[in-house]
Amino acid sequence: MSTTNEYAPFNLTKSIRQSPPLDFSIPYSESWLSGKHILITGGASGFGEGFARRWAAAGASIVVGDINEKLGTSTVASIRLETKNENVWFVKCDVCDWDAQVQMFKEAVRLSPHKGIDVVVANAGIAGTDPMQMPVVRNGEVQKPNLKILEVDLIGVMYTSHLAFHYLPNNPGSLDCSVNANPENASFKRDRLLLLTGSVASLGPIANQPQYGTAKHGVLGLFRCLRGSSFVQGVRVNLLCPYFIETPIVPAEARLLMAGAAYGKVEDVVEAATRLTADSRILGRSVVIGPKVRVKQEDSGDWKFVGFGPGEGGEEKAIWEAYAEDWEDSEVFTRRMVVLLNIVQKARGWLGALSDIVKVFAGR
Question: What is the 3-state secondary structure (H, E, C) of the chain?
């Protein structure tokens, strides 16, 4: 029996245009990527290379941004040869350098078949020995620490995201994101997506890697904030949180500590990213990608590990949704802010749309 004092949650998922929880049994087609123009930072190796290779094969045009010119050039040449897709380019970029990122975005627009960017993947990241807990003292003075990991993995992502919120809404011919999009309809293929690469370190502590953990927590915070307001610009924001995956970013000491443990696979990260990118119905969702295991779901909703091999029964999974319930309840500030954002979006109406069109043709 309910009472007048019974608490009722303030669910804002519809107000922020968030799509329903992910159902990985629903099929999607990577052909939905065809015709999209995609900018990927950190695209010369690892996840970024995997994204570029698969998406180019599906008919997307790709700009690979990376600081490693030699590797980036050879990666693009390899992708072109393998996929027979000539619309794949390399642009050298240090993501910590604001001016370099500005030039990368401008070049991505210049190279675009339709002179706009449909998808921005903020993927560049590094790891390594972290000096945070190892202060260096010279002549009695503590020296300034090297915060390069934090700068690349968080500040670089913030720069990329900031630029994305200029270029995505000003993308000619693209549509506002919508949970009612039909990606099989050609007119819905070109929407606007910012895809962030976080980590399992976004979700919990990572020993002896405070910069990396801080940065990836920051990327998660960025995602959780942006997905509550990005609908105003018609941009959908999704997040990848890979577990330890065998890529160049995993340093030797981490591989030693992980000896005997199960790694995730690059192909599973690429599969998750492809679904989040190709399916324009997915708005404001994050996934964790880990080792492929077999599990059974209990009546409580919890998943029970049953083994690795097909003979163990259960369901094989490597991709899981995280932070699915953020907006199913909200406190008063957020609730009132979302209401205000919806009023702003409605007030812009045709005037706002015309203003955006004028900016595009004015080159702003």
Answer: CCCCCCCCCCCCCCCCCCCCCCCCCCCCCHHHHCCCEEEEECCCCHHHHHHHHHHHHCCCEEEEEECCHHHHHHHHHHHHHHHCCCCEEEEECCCCCHHHHHHHHHHHHHHCCCCCCCEEEECCCCCCCCHHHCCCEECCEECCCCCHHHHHHHHHHHHHHHHHHHHCCCCCCCCCCCCCCCCCCHHHCCCCEEEEECCHHHCCCCCCCHHHHHHHHHHHHHHHHHCCCHHHHCCEEEEEEECCECCCCCCHHHHHHCCCCCCECHHHHHHHHHHHHHCCCCCCCEEEEEEEEEEEECCCCCEEEEECCHHHCCEEEEEEEECCCHHHCCCHHHHHHHHHHHHHHHHHHHHHHHHHHHHHHHCC
Mean pLDDT of the chain: 87
| Least reliable range by pLDDT among 48-62, 217-231, 325-339 | 325-339
pLDDT in tens, 218-250: 999 999 999 999 999 999 999 999 988 776 656
Active site positions, annotated: 212, 216
Q: What is the pLDDT of residues 158-200, one digit of tens each?
A: 999 999 999 999 999 998 999 999 998 877 778 999 999 999 9
**CATH architecture observed for domain 13-330:** 3-Layer(aba) Sandwich (3.40)
What is the pTM assigned to this prediction?
A: 0.88
Q: Summarize the confidence of residues 90-99 as an average pLDDT.
A: 98
> Cα angle at 67 between 63 and 71, to 5 degrees?
75
